[in-house]
Amino acid sequence: MIKIENATQMYHSNIIFEQVNFTIDRGERVAIVGRNGAGKTTLLHALVGFSRLKEGKISIDGKAVHQPAAWKGKLSYLPEKFQLYLQLSVVENVQYVADTLRIPKKEVEAVLRHTNMWDYKDKRISQVSKGMLQRVGLSVALLGKPEWVVLDEPTSGLDPFGRNDILKIMENIGTSNRSLLFTTHHMNEVNKIATHVLYLHDKKIIKLDANTFLEQFERSISS
């Protein structure tokens, strides 16, 4: 379980959110929603321990998230923008990360099949579409069978076909033993994927089940 207690975060002199309290349980698929500049990525960075809170604390299974042992072997994070080796093939990129993490070679094939990229394994990264590139990123994110998968704007910039491919993969990520956190601007993604929503508004964060959120806020937020 991730537990956030009395959390306040600032950027320079600006308060991003303040006195926030909520928990995220295992098996939940949580959409992080808010207007541009509301602090969605800032919240993700705090949750995974990339940045420290101004006040309050965040813990995972009782350990502070900024402690090295807190997330070890449990977390996978895919930022909105990421880099792969353009001169290498799809499978070579994923294999390189797997080797670095000492993950068995058979898992490389498993994650590429999960993201429907195995048939394109020999294509160079410089030759794949943006949608396929995102699927390679997801393949890397799924290596090691992480318990928590965190995705920042995973469908950003994709055409409807590529976006639909990513959503199908995301639907199969969350299980009773694996949780999914993702940022989005699209209400149909909340409706299709999320069990819960973290809604950032007016320097506050409220947690709602997805159906309640959609009933209360869908009309007021552009999809």
Please, could you describe this protein's structure?
The chain has 223 residues and is an alpha/beta fold. It has a domain at 1-74 and 181-223: Rossmann fold (3-Layer(aba) Sandwich). The chain contains 8 helices and 10 strands. The protein has helices at residues 40-47, 68-71, 90-100, 105-114, 130-142, 160-171, 187-193, 210-217, and strands spanning 2-11, 14-24, 29-34, 55-60, 63-64, 75-78, 148-151, 179-183, 196-201, 204-209. The protein has a 6-stranded mixed β-sheet with strand order 6-7-8-3-9-10, with helices on both faces. Helix 3 packs across helix 4 (105-114) and helix 4 (105-114) crosses helix 5. The two termini are 30 Å apart. The relative contact order is 0.19. The mean pLDDT is 92.
What would a concise description of this structure say?
The chain is of the alpha/beta class and 223 residues long. 33% of the residues lie in helices and 27% in strands. Helix 3 packs across helix 4 (105-114) and helix 4 packs across helix 5 (130-142).
